[in-house]
Design brief:
Blueprint: H1 3-21, H2 27-40, E1 45-50, E2 53-55, E3 58-60, E4 65-70, E5 74-79, H3 86-99, E6 103-108, E7 118-122
Helix pairs in contact: 1-2
Amino acid sequence: MNENQIASSILDCAIQIHKDLGPGLLESAYKECLFYKLNKEGLYCVKEKAMPLIYEDVKLNCGYRVDLLVENKVVIEIKSVEHLNDIHLAQTLTYLKLGEYKLGLLINFNVSLLKYGIKRVINGQL
């Protein structure tokens, strides 16, 4: 599967979770549900993947962690906030750059319709 096909499956799962649970839960609840649902759908998914920072050939473990990494290709950053802002976008883009991934999905579950809480993030450096 390519990144766009994976993203489509991810969004289908996220939309179903949002329909079932609605907004207002903690980020961790949505993360666990999405992790469960993606695995159930047969997608390889890693939760809380460590993202080391490499600076001048030194690997620094700074505590960066991707919420979910699907098929070792698509980064998912989950939020449950009133509004997404630039720092959330920057965080997702940083994960893409650190891991050299092409596509990320920033998903805010705290919205009335999930389509209003989804941002596709592309790593333009690859």
